[in-house]
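ok so for the tutorial part 2 we go from a plain amino acid sequence to predicted C-alpha cells. step 1 is just haveing the sequence, like this:
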Amino acid sequence: MPIDVNTLISQYGYWALFIGCLAEGETFTLLGGVAAHEGLLRYGWVVLTAMCGGVLGDTALFFIGRYYGESLLQRLTRHQQHIERANRLIHQRPVLFVVGVRFMYGLRLIGPLIIGASRLAPRRFLLLNLCGAALWAFLFVSLGYFAGGVIAPWLHQLEHHLKHLVWLLLVVGLVWGARRWLKHRHARQQR
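step 2 — the prediction. this is what the C-alpha cells look like for a chain of 191 residues:
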C-alpha cells in the first residue's frame, strides 16, 4: 500500500511541528511554512503550533536551569567564558537577551538554561519568552511560506524521483554487502 506524503503531513504535520519546535525548531518551522504554502496545513495554525512548541520547550529548559543550572553549567568548563558573558548580557539587557536567544546560533538550547540559572524572575521570563516565540514563529514560518514557491516544485521533483533513489540505494547496498561477503569468504579460504 503506497504512502501518501500529503496525507501524512495533513494528519500529523502539526504534531510533528510541535515536537520539533520543543528543542530546535527552525527547520520544522520553515518546512511548516512550505506545507502551509502548499495548502497541506493552515498558515495561522502553523505559526501558533510553532510558537507553542517553542514556548513550552524553552520554559522547560528555563526551569531546569533554575533548579539544576548551576551544577549543569559548571560541567561545561570549556564554555565558562561564554556563559559568564551571557550572564552579563542577561542582567544588562534581559529583554533583548530573552527575546533574542532563540535567534542566536549555538544558544538555542543552552540559552534558556543560562537564563534560568541567572535567577531572572519566572513571570518576566514567561512574558518575554512568549514575545520572542511569537516573533520567531512568525518570521520563520513566513520565510518558509514565501520560499514555498521556490522549494515546492523541487520537493515535487524529489518525490517523483524518490522511488528511483530508493532502488538505487538498495542496489548499491546489495552490491556492497555481496562484496564484503566475498572478501570475507576469500580471507577465510586463505587461512
